[in-house]
Amino acid sequence: MNTFASVIHILTLLTTALMAGLFFSYSFSVNSGLSQLNDSAYLLAMQSINKAILNPVFFICFFGTVVLLPLNAYLQYDGRLTINFSLYGLSAAFYIIGLFGITILGNVPLNDTLEAFDLGNSSQEAIKAMRETFEDPWNKWHSIRTIAVIISFLLLSIATVLPKR
């Protein structure tokens, strides 16, 4: 493997691991804590988190991995359809469809709806209804994308340690 391919491979492992860790830890710590909050506090916290996550470090890892995974697979391709290449390709597919696609098509529209909700001028009934509209679907999509990114990282890791065949 040449130096450029090695650097891309390491960056791909790093960004995929970071994204898997972020989504995993969110699932098993942040969501658990948020679920204990009352409706107003929950919605306010989610609005705040949804703003805070839109930062350069997150964007570099989130979007960078969309580019790095297929690029890594391409750079690992040696003209043969090997198990390693197939695993690299599957890793890219799980990330792009299962994490990126679910985020764009499932979680982001829910986040946008929540962002537009005027928490300060809403009744308790409206606040309760917004939480019911938001929380379960958001958590369902989040669980799917968490599983997808963990599978993506697992496939990438297996392909990395398997002997080239």
TrEMBL record:
The keyword Transmembrane applies. The keyword Transmembrane applies. InterPro entries: Anthrone_oxy. The chain crosses the membrane at residues 53-75, 87-108, 144-162. Keywords: Membrane, Transmembrane, Transmembrane helix. This is DUF1772 domain-containing protein. The lineage of its organism: Bacteria, Pseudomonadati, Bacteroidota, Flavobacteriia, Flavobacteriales.
